[in-house]
Amino acid sequence: MPYELYYWPSIQGRGEFVRLALEEAGADYADVAREPEGLAAMMRMMDHAERPPFAPPFLKDGETIIGQSAAILLYLGARHGLAPKDPAGGLWAHQIQLTIADFVAEAHDTHHPVGVGLYYEDQKDEALRRSEEFRQGRIPKFLNWFETILARNPAGDGHLVGRALTYVDLSLFQAVEGLAYAFPKATRRALKDAPRVAALHDAVAERPRIKAYCDSPRRIPFNQEGIFRHYPELDG
């Protein structure tokens, strides 16, 4: 049976990290909420599942339902050769993924620093302050950490964990893609000090299945509703 991915149909968001892993694995999956009546099916699943996920994305594999992007990737990575086979390596990959999740959450909070239930226009002054700190302090701090990991994995041929591509490489690619959309000027500056991260991003972009996916209608364009949003005034 194909996997069933449940996520909002009009944004990349946190679901995109899962989509990239499914695409790289060549896995058979349905992006349920993008199908006719799929959004209603997603809401029914959240309302009536015995172990309901808190929010999308979540993945259904037979009778198993997994919520949270990092947990879904932990599950998929072990089944599709996108994670180290040894327990220590698997735990290290999971740790990196959780750190990427922190990075993504901070990127989101630049345009919604006061509350997710408020419009951006209701918190523009706070967003300006939060974005300045994110651009100047947090983007370099996170990228330096990833750069350090890549430098300390010399046998990995440019990968974050082990010798081969894993789901965390795909996730870092997506994080850089999002930053380049939301903060193009700040991201260009920061990547000059993180050449290994930039090289990993470029290598993932050229992988045949990822390139085909990104060039296809299945890849939802970045927009002003997702995690990564481009407001020129925030990209100093």
Spans of 5+ residues with little confidence (pLDDT < 50)? none
- Write the CATH fold name of one domain: Glutathione S-transferase Yfyf (Class Pi), Chain A, domain 2
* Percent range of helical residues: 40-55%
Q: How does CATH name the architecture of one domain? A: Up-down Bundle
Structural class of the helices, strands and pairings? alpha+beta
What's the β-strand tally?
4
Relative strand content: 5-15%
Largest sheet: 4 strands, mixed
- What's the rounded overall pLDDT mean? 96
Query: In angstroms, what is the radius of gyration?
Result: 18 Å
Morphology call: globular
Distance between the termini: 48 Å
Structure description:
A hairpin with a 2-residue loop joins strand 3 (58-61) and strand 4 (64-67). This protein has 236 residues and is α+β, with helices and mostly antiparallel strands. 55% of the residues lie in helices and 6% in strands. The protein has helices at 15-25, 38-48, 69-79, 87-111, 124-151, 167-182, 184-192, 195-205, 208-214; strands spanning 3-6, 29-31, 58-61, 64-67.
